[in-house]
Design a protein that fits this description.
The protein is mainly alpha-helical. Helices cover 73% and strands 6% of the residues. The protein contains 7 helices and 2 strands, in the order ααααββααα. Helix 2 crosses helix 5 and helix 3 packs across helix 6. The model has no long low-confidence stretch (mean pLDDT 93).
Amino acid sequence: MSDLLQHSAARLSRVVADYAPGEGRPLGGYTGAMSVYGALSAGLAALVRVQKRQLQRTSASDVILVTCATHKLARLITKDAITSPIRAPFTQFVGAAGEGELTEEVRGDGAKHAVGELLTCPFCVAQWIATGFAFGLIFAPRATRLVASTMTAVAGSDFLQLAYAWGQRKAEG
């Protein structure tokens, strides 16, 4: 068994080294993040089954609502100035990046780096958020729609604020 573990560890080290020579990509951290996501999703799916919850067909309006809410919540988590304390253990402030958003660099190695990438990538964290909304629609549909409606309203307001500012700039010349 010990030889098998040593052989597997050596092979994994070669895969990591060959994947991105000199880059130090945190494949172990990514594997950990994927494992956590998979375990949470599987656990929630098992809970749906154990509780014999009925899966409903998702309406087009729920898909649009969750899409807009996922977009806004992903931006809020990964870019918003007010949520920077969540990202601070994994990132370093670089500067402002538009209306109320920040640019941050990921720091650390391994799992810390992988979490930093997740927390600074709206595309990456959106998968987790959308999954949360999907299970929310199963376990607590009214509360989930309320939260999603709030995030969608904020996203709409953001676009109107930006359009208004753009219109002001155009009017001023």
